[in-house]
Design a protein that fits this description.
InterPro entries: DUF429. A five-stranded mixed β-sheet has the order 3-2-1-4-7. A two-stranded parallel sheet has the order 5-6. A two-stranded antiparallel ribbon has the order 8-9. The protein starts with a strand and ends with a strand. It is α/β, with parallel strands linked by helices. The protein has one domain: Nucleotidyltransferase, domain 5 (2-Layer Sandwich). Helix 7 packs across helix 10 and helix 8 runs parallel beside helix 10. The mean pLDDT is 95.
């Protein structure tokens, strides 16, 4: 392997990445901006990220093509794949709310736009709204720099674990009632170790600003980046869709 690989997930501090460089030990890094990570990597680095890429102008029942394609694979874990609304809804409200009430009011306004641009009309989940600023980060970067579109690939942790687990969904949830579940985390650590990551690497404390679940998801993304680099990964749907800005729409595993 001569290509630098990175698996990325959003986290409280911004973004957490598991990075593999030829001849070096894997490392975990935290950056505040996605573009900072991209700029720190070589021009030919392959990146898999747990964040939607490609936004529809109008959404249909079940969300984008990728969500509809992967949910049936996950059984009880399919609730981890939530639908992404229209581009207009994602861009309806800026980030940086000063109060919780302002945040909820912004969510209501975005939901109104989402309902107007979906068939049947559908509001936005709180979970989806919480990552809109990160979706805009990647969306803006890929629109400004078309050269990155072949290097940065959308993936999804639970679909990645499904693929790494021999196309079997994980038996335990990663979180229970919003809290990290130790048995579910151990199940995923054990699988990542079976797939070649060092157990000592997986067991080390997470860096400040990133949760243990964020780090494990980034590690799963790293293994998907390796599959992409080797030509083994498959997009869902296949072939990928394309949005009105020319961005690919597919979950790669």
């Amino acid at each position: 392997m001569s290509t630098v690989l990175a698996g990325v997930d959003g986290c409280k501090a911004g973004w957490v990445a598991a990075v593999r460089r030829p001849g070096s030990q894997d490392e975990i890094v935290v950056v505040d901006r996605f573009s900072s990570l991209v700029d720190a990597l070589p021009d030919d680095a392959v990146i898999a990220v747990d964040m939607p890429i490609g936004l529809p102008d109008v959404t249909r029942k079940g969300g984008r093509g990728p969500e509809m394609a992967v949910r049936p694979l996950l059984g009880q874990r399919q609730s981890s794949v939530f639908s992404i609304p229209s581009r207009a809804a994602v861009y309806a409200e800026p980030a940086g709310f000063t109060t919780l009430d302002a945040w909820y009011e912004a969510h209501r306004r975005s939901s109104a736009i989402a309902r107007a641009t979906s068939d049947p009309p559908r509001s936005i989940s709180i979970q989806a709204f919480g990552i809109f600023s990160k979706i805009r980060e990647i969306d803006g970067l890929l629109r400004d720099r078309p050269d990155l579109r072949g290097r940065i690939h959308e993936s999804h942790p639970e679909v990645a674990f499904w693929r790494l687990n021999g196309m079997q969904a994980m038996s335990l949830p990663k979180k229970v009632k919003g809290r990290v579940s130790a048995p579910g985390m151990e199940e995923r650590r054990a699988l990542l170790a079976q797939c070649g990551l060092e157990r000592t690497f997986l067991d080390r404390p997470s860096p400040r600003g990133a949760g243990d679940d964020d780090v494990l998801d980034a590690c799963a993304m790293l293994l998907i980046a390796a599959r992409i680099e080797r030509g083994e990964a498959r997009p869902y749907p296949d072939p990928p869709l394309v949005d009105s800005c020319g961005l690919p729409i597919a979950i790669w595993v």
